[in-house]
Specification:
With 376 residues, this protein is an alpha/beta fold. It has a single domain, classed as Aldolase class I (TIM Barrel, Alpha-Beta Barrel). It contains 13 helices and twelve strands. It has an eight-stranded parallel β-barrel with strand order 3-4-5-8-9-10-11-12, surrounded by six helices. Strands 1-2 form a two-stranded antiparallel ribbon. 53% of the residues are buried.
């Protein structure tokens, strides 16, 4: 079977991606201490670039020291981080047809930094940390908008091909769009438009700094899957607002660690044990696609079979697909598929990699176990 769509080029903004495969931003816990890029992290991205991924989105990069989740999480909140980030970009660009974006973020109410109390739009208790974040003033919200913009400018200076805002999974930006975590009465709260204003203001600030040709994309929470959280209807409306604002691509997602804490549901570590479990955000993507004008739509979540996703692309439900866990197991998965081996990804969705994320560095537990058996 020929994959007519998965390995055809397509643009995000004015950037041409050689195929429709994106490595979804993934925290790897592999920087040097205090968030500086070193050889260990560069090796991960070198393997991904060599493995055939069209666009790599680097993992969560903090816009402020208070927004880091680990000492080994990438940072770009001041110029001291630029040299290492430039080396990472240069490594990927040595594969001339591979593009790289950077995901910029802040922990928000999920923060548990020993030096900083978490902050958020509203003071809503978080069960995991047993902390209630401090409610930000209006001036503080505006100050953090500038922090995102300044980090985006540094990313541009480092040579990244695009920027992704992380507005999902309970982190800072998703705190604004969810009615459960945003009960503000100022311009950054209230109805859907008010709750989306923080994201729009960051987008406009980046546009003012970087011009109209540099792609700005977003990973967007569409549904919280918790009581009183963001509903699917509101999430779809938020996506339309951001598309109309000019975002070049949206990667819809949902749930988060709090979903596990409050409901015991499987998000975000969805199990994929049979074909019916695959592509579990497809129903959400189908609801969003019709309202996207010049915004590319990226399907993530449980992607395992190249034949299935090729048909999804052919039917126009999505423009790109993004993967994380399968590429932790097989960084060369895109090249394997392109060479004609169309067997599904080897990832068995054991979610062992999610557990390694808690302490870092992140690795595939199943693959490591098999490698140990072979050495015996």
């Amino acid at each position: 079977m020929e994959l007519k769509n998965l390995f055809s080029p397509k643009r995000i903004g004015n950037v041409l991606i050689k195929n429709r495969i994106i490595r979804s931003a993934t925290y790897m816990g592999s920087t040097e201490k205090y968030g500086f890029v070193g050889d260990k992290l560069i090796k991960i991205y070198d393997d991904l670039a060599r493995g055939g991924t069209g666009l790599i989105i680097s993992g969560y990069t903090a816009v402020d020291p208070s927004g880091t989740a680990s000492p080994y999480q990438a940072c770009l909140f001041d110029d001291s981080f630029i040299p290492g980030q430039k080396k990472l970009v240069k490594c990927v660009h040595e594969y001339s047809d591979v593009k790289i974006g950077i995901q910029i973020a802040h922990t928000g109410r999920l923060g548990n930094h020993p030096k900083y109390h978490p902050l958020a739009p509203s003071p809503v208790f978080y069960k995991r940390t047993e902390l209630t974040p401090r409610e930000m003033t209006t001036d503080e919200v505006k100050d953090y908008i500038k922090k995102f913009v300044d980090t985006g400018r540094r990313a541009y200076e480092c040579g990244y091909d695009m920027i992704q805002l992380h507005a999902a999974h309970g982190y800072y930006l998703s705190n604004f769009i969810s009615p459960r975590t945003n009960m503000r009465k100022d311009e950054f709260g209230g109805d859907i438009e008010g709750r989306a204003k923080c994201l729009i203001d960051i987008y406009r600030g980046l546009r003012d700094e970087l011009g109209t040709n540099f792609p700005i994309i977003i990973k967007l929470q569409i549904q919280d899957f918790v009581p009183n959280g963001l509903s699917l209807e509101e999430g779809v409306t938020t996506a339309k607002i951001l598309s109309n604002a000019g975002f070049d691509a949206i990667e819809p997602s949902g749930g988060g660690e709090e979903t596990l804490l409050l409901t015991k549901d499987a998000y975000p570590s969805q199990f994929v044990k049979k074909p019916d479990d695959e592509n579990y955000f497809l129903p959400i993507v189908k609801k969003i696609k019709s309202s996207m004008k010049n915004t590319a739509l990226i399907l993530m979540g449980g992607i395992r079979n190249p034949k299935t996703v090729d048909k999804i692309l052919e039917d126009g439900f999505a423009d790109f697909i993004s993967l994380s866990r399968p590429l932790i197991y097989e960084p060369n998965l895109p090249s394997r598929w392109e060479s004609g081996d169309l067997s599904p990804a080897k990832c068995i969705s054991c979610n062992g990699c999610y557990m390694t994320m808690l302490n870092g560095p992140v690795y595939c537990v199943t693959k490591k176990r098999l490698e140990k058996r072979k050495k015996r």
